[in-house]
Amino acid sequence: xxxxxxxxxxxxxxxxxxxxxxxxxxxxxxxxxxxxxxxxxxxxxxxxxxxxxxxxxxxxxxxxxxxxxxxxxxxxxxxxxxxxxxxxxxxxxxxxxxxxxxxxxxxxxxxxxxxxxxxxxxxxxxxxxxxxxxxxxxxxxxxxxxxxxxxxxxxxxx
Length: 158
Fold this sequence. Notes:
The protein is mainly α. It has two domains: 4-63, no CATH class; 80-155, Tetratricopeptide repeat domain (Serine Threonine Protein Phosphatase 5, Tetratricopeptide repeat), CATH 1.25.40.10. Helix content is 47%, strand content 8%. A hairpin with a 5-residue loop joins strand 2 and strand 3.
């Protein structure tokens, strides 16, 4: 397989071809100085992964003589630093937004800021949001020798 990408001069567009007469235009959104005439490279990578997963599943189902009516693959790709900034903005606007605290906790966990994650997980609960017990256990194991042990307020970094 030979993949070719031709950049269009004067803009952020690329025309990518797979060598079998199938091509796509990739571009940046307008807010990133693009013309928004195609998906970004990151979006295309996510789309390719979702397509790969569903194709493999269909092949396995077919080989196993398994019938199905519909299968949907959903992926969520994120940029942790941008997500963290967005959740912080949401919390600044509405401090009692439990789901934003929870989502910020998950994003901070992914960045290995376990104490920050713990703080926002606690805030989510104070706001009435119920974080996933499995996430609480995993985070607790990262922070404490004994799972389930809780920190004192003085021991968290914030």
